[in-house]
Specification:
The protein is of the alpha+beta class. The protein folds into two domains: 2-46 and 129-315, Multidrug efflux transporter AcrB transmembrane domain (Multidrug efflux transporter AcrB transmembrane fold); 53-125, Alpha-Beta Plaits. The chain contains eleven helices and six strands. The strands form two sheets. Strands 3-4-2-5 form a four-stranded antiparallel sheet. Strands 1-6 form a two-stranded parallel sheet. A hairpin with a 4-residue loop joins strand 3 (81-84) and strand 4 (89-94).
Length: 328
Amino acid sequence: MAQLGNRLYTGESSFDFVGRRKLWFLIAGALVLISAILLVKPGLTYGIEFEGGAEFRVSGTTNQDAAREAVQAVLPDAVPTVTTVGGNGLRVQTETVSTTQLDEIRAELAQKLGVSQNDVNPSSIGPSWGADVTNKALTGLIVFLVIVSIVMALYFRAWTMAIASLVALFHDLLITAGVYALVGFEVTPASVIGFLTILGYSLYDTVVVFDKVRENTDGAFLKKDRTFGDAANLAINQTVVRSVNTTVVALLPVAAILFIGDLLLGAGTLRDISLALFVGMLVGAYSSIFVATPLLVVLRSREARVRQLDRDVREGVTAEPVTAGDPA
């Protein structure tokens, strides 16, 4: 990888990321479309923190059928969600219930599962509180995107880079949400934290590439030695090995939490955030290389200065040398 990185950085070897942008856009568009369909059907499964409801944590048993029977003994029409937590516990979720029904369900769970009522920990969240959590989550996401747009535009002095980075972020967020809908994991506050974390990670990766794009394209405008697209493509080649290495290193502990912690150890409380991080980091690395920079080239190609540069390079026009007497 080190030797490959050196060859890519110097231009000795090169992958045509920008030239094949139609293929990357097609793949990204297909993934976004599939994710959008999954968000409609089957759709996201929201936790009680967003929709409101009652939750019962039961320790000392994993009998899911008995837990469902206990809930339906009090609420005959209810369809409770029962999941195993850890190696010896259950999480039972139902619709919003009254205080009396909460106590009755707790007693039924203890009786049918053969545990003490002290081993059944109930909690209830009203629908208004859930709506408040949803509004705050959306507000946090919108504020994040607005601040990102302003910072990107000011840092790079170009709104095109802000637009390209936002499209990449939207791509990452939608695909991650689509995976959530596909596997049926509940969306919880931990999931929202994971979403915001992957947006930050994806943005960081995109900024690194864009910084190199700015450096290379500024040099191309001065030297007229390569087109804007070629300079941007060189920037991707110079940073791709670093992006891959960073992503792999970051994914290893997250994969351990997701696959070993959840599937083998049964630590189900960690899977919400770990799934968001795992999918988001993977998709974020893809978007920073195959979506953000190629899209930037498309947006900048409409500028007169960029068109002139490309024309000069094709026609072999060289930059005028600066002599000692000339102004800098």
